[in-house]
Prior knowledge:
Elements: E1 12-19, E2 28-34, E3 39-45, H1 46-56, E4 60-63, H2 73-82, E5 88-91, H3 101-107, H4 116-128, E6 133-148, H5 159-183, E7 188-195, E8 198-206, E9 218-220, E10 223-239, E11 246-252, E12 257-263, E13 268-274, H6 279-289, E14 291-296, H7 304-313, E15 316-318, H8 326-332, H9 341-367, H10 374-382, H11 388-404, H12 415-510, E16 524-530, H13 535-545, E17 552-555, H14 563-571, E18 576-579, H15 585-593, E19 598-600, E20 606-609, E21 612-616, H16 617-657
Parallel strand pairs: 1-4, 4-5, 11-14, 14-15, 16-17, 17-18, 18-19
Antiparallel strand pairs: 1-2, 2-3, 5-6, 6-8, 6-10, 7-8, 9-10, 11-12, 12-13, 16-21, 20-21
Helix pairs in contact: 8-9, 14-15
Amino acid sequence: MSSRISALDAVVFGVDIQSGDVRGDAPSYAVVAFDGENFDRDVVSYRKLRRLIDREEPAIVATDNVYELAADKDALVRFLGSLPDETRLVQVTGDQQPEPLSRVANRHGVPYGKKPMKEAEAAARLAAANVGYEVSAFTDTTEVKVSRGRSTGSGGWSADRFTRRIHGSVKRRAREVASALDDAGLDYEMDETEKYGGYSNAVFTVEARPSDIPVSRNRAGDTRTEIQRVRRDGIVFEPLAKRRDHVVVGIDPGTTTAVAIVGLDGGVLDVLSTRTADTAQVIEWIIERGRPVVVAADVERMPSTVEKIRRSFSAAGWVPETDLPVDEKQHRTREEGYDNDHERDALAAALFAFDDYESRFERIARKVPARVDVGTVVGRVVAGEESVEAVLTDLTEEDESDEDEPEHEPRELTPEERRIKRLESRVERLDDHVSELNDTIEEKDETIAEYERELTEARREERREARGRREVDRLERENERLETELDDQREATEAIEAKLDRLKELWRLDHSNFADVAEERQGLVPVKPVAKFTKSALREADERWELTTGDVCYLRDASGAGRSTAETLAEREPRIVLKQGGLSEVAREVLFEHDIPTAPADEVTIEELDDLAVARESEVEAAIEGWRERADERQKERNESMVDQVISEHRAERGEGA
């Protein structure tokens, strides 16, 4: 990132409160727009400031206190959420503990004045120079949610079809969003909720800002697409210019160069080993990670490459009294991570150097007041060989000069002079006010004329859009009607096709000549199979074959039927029931009472033709004849049993009479 925003890059808004309070009524703000070269100034209300930011979309909105724009943290989060995607809010005076704007401006050589417009200009200049902290309540992760655009309703004749259509539309829209994200090469995770006919919603968690996502918020027909950034846990202040802390650097040069970075607290920050980077690239790598206070080597005589890097940073050098033994280096780095011996040697050099300087770092830190950066003092004392007192005096000289500068005591004015001065000031303010009012009148006249032209055009456009909306509504209603008719027609077609299939199968069963059966298979009779002797199986067979009087029924599993199931079959009056397995006594009695023959399927040869079955007429007749013989014998047995029972009862009655 460049150290300054140029006129070709973007615009920076500097904002300072002019009058009122954001917690009260109607605050006004001094606004300065800075493009790197030119300034535009204005005083606007809070509402106009929001509209101005939305219209111009500046790169930065800079202020000395973000709570001049929002009453509290919740309001600040809402303000941040309302900013355009490419606009950042920057507090130029620091993070949670800001400094006075005058001190920050003087430190960076920026013109400063106490009037709100001057403070707004100073804020804009500072932010353009990358001074300040970006205020953020959102991450760079965005959620894109595709959901239903209308309710599925509470019911009705076409409720299922309507629900299926809406969920299908959500699924199609979710696929369009996924395709757009894939085409843009963005990383995302998709979490969809499947419902009848498609999705009720789909949430995409995208690793990008909303401005980088090729999907827009919209609501069209059955779907709605919403986009929102993911909230942080709190409000975060991040410096515009990345801070580089003071560090201790260990270097092991050679064919493979290794570098280790250790903080002033002794913590290992980073380690590098490379065979391709030259000295300039190594220096650049170190610059990105900190400002070296000490540069160390692991051998007694500092190598020339290490010395060259040390001089480039004007840092203090450190070497051991004798070359560091391998076992000592291993012991010192045992709790740190490294990939090879070169990184271990560089890490050992940095850690041993820190051990030597640790007590000195602590002594310096104890002398440094809280408002002064310890790293800056350590760097100048260790590398520049200055005293702590001299460094502190130099660093605080500017602030002290501001505080201790003697004030000019003007001569006390006479009452007449004070009155004249007040009147002159008042006349000047009134003249300025009259001039501003005249300018405002001219601007308002021009604005009114422009608004009238826009209103006329807007009314004309509204009439065109109304006509278009009516036509769209008519076409949508017609489309829905046609879709409903099409769905009904499809359902009717499916029912007719199913009925036609059943009729074809029945025709094949009811034609006795079986034209599609070979010559030698004449004299066959159709058999209508039933999977189980249950009501549901009988109902399914009836829907498939239309069981009628005189059919040959084949029970693949005859067990388990009760009286109700047997009576259901008896109502169809089949010619004979062929069975696999044994009938229950109740079912056998019901079929016997209805004079319906039953026979084991093994007595008849049943042949399968596709999903149909046939049997020889002669074997069926033989099975029926066999049942009749068994039925006659059973009837005789029942008659004999009845006669025996009557005789027994008669004898019993005579015995009681005697």
